[in-house]
Fold this protein.
Amino acid sequence: MKKFQQRAYKRRWAATTRHLKKQCRQSTLELESDDSEQENDTTSTPETVTKYMDAAETASCTAAGADNATYSGPDSDEPDENDADWRLIDHHVTLSSDSENESDSDCFEDHLSLWATEYNVKHNALDSLLKILKKFGHPDLPSTARTILNTAREVKTQVKSGMEYYYLGLGSELLKHFKMYPLHKRTQVNALEISLNIDGLPLFRSSGKTLWPVLCAIVNMKPTVVFPVALTCGTSMPIDLDFLMDTILDIKTVLQHGLHDGYSGCDKCCQRGEYFGRITYQEIENLVPRTDASFRSQTYAEHHYDGDPSPFCQLPIDMVKTFPVDYMHQVCLGTMKRLLLVWIRGKREVKHSADQIQQISDRLEGMRTTFPSTFARKPRSLKEIDRWKATEYRQFLLYTGKVVLRGILRPDLYDNFMTLSVAVSILVAPKLAETHMIDYAHQLLVHFVTQARNLYGVEFLVYNVHSSLHLADEVREHGSLDACAAFPFENFMHKMKKLVRSGKRPLAQVVKRLSERSKKTA
């Protein structure tokens, strides 16, 4: 029996490995394909995504070629080619590191993590596999299973009802599992009906250790998916019902305020998003702004997560204007990266050939020898796009892009890019902002978003792109985009990381190093 299980395990691993290699070739070696030659005078037409499989469904289907693959999510329709393109782009934009100095996860690492989770691979087995992969062709992979799986280093539990207790959260878990269902099923329901179950589960024959989970199920959608809300463990039954209080309070909050679904996620305007395979914001002009008064009174309840006021409300500040749109994340790591990925890996109508992408890369690398030393980084090839940092996207948007794209990128796409480049160039320069060019920059951004929807489709107008429409207001309030950007903070985060020398009490190490430096400057 044991040998049979080993053979079955090896078959699943071989099939999954083939699937992973295929996925990696499609996503990371896309530049080698010449199947999508584009003519410069081609006009693109927007297409609406009609089918979509989100990340959770993708995770459950990653090892679809494996024998006896375990089903882990609701049924879903097969995505069409355009859906796959947008999921790949969304995936890489999401994986963009907020920090200027952290590495991006590559495709193979992500799929390996999904495989290990799907088949419940033990950590020691995965540790051994990682050592082999690092030795034979994958030196950049993590060394341990805990790293690749993002295993929590510490689980903080409480004591309730005489037992060890951990609460996962009803609202967050309910929303997460609801999003696993295909779009056409989600749009057919106006309310969710849930069922709760509590029962004891003996863990070992040799002891009385028993797990008492609070389980939840969405019963008015098929197939029914069961998930834990709270976990309780002890050697006997709970001595009281105190372990249910968090769940009850969470149910009360959900009944009063509904689920925070991200459709009202914009901090600057009251627009409610629309779902086209992802949450998008289709309104471009005549946006209704949020105000300090409406925020404090929670006029738009779905914009507030749990109904509790923000702790910042205790301060005498404007709760909308005081929190600016950070263009490092929204424009550089958001819109600019999204544009590049669309040109490289997007839909056939706007995707450029491998030869064209190579020409752009050659131009970028050709600048390295004469690039000014005032720039922190020299231009890199588009083959390394997944490892670009925010400063490199900023550099491309404001300086190099307009040069290396000219004559290669399709003319209508190039004009659209230049609209964004000129607008942001105005808004990052305080002197230009002082010359009353802010209104002109806003007009350019409105034109950019409008044309981007026509060129790339409604799916392109995600929150990052929508945020561009609020950049001019941020400059009016703060002086320039650089005056309220996260770049200096990210740089300091890197300095703080260098203060940690070992894994033992990292926080204490940082405090000590900062104390040493403060004595030198005193």
Notes: Residues 2-28 form the longest helix (27 residues). The first strand starts at residue 158 and ends at 160.
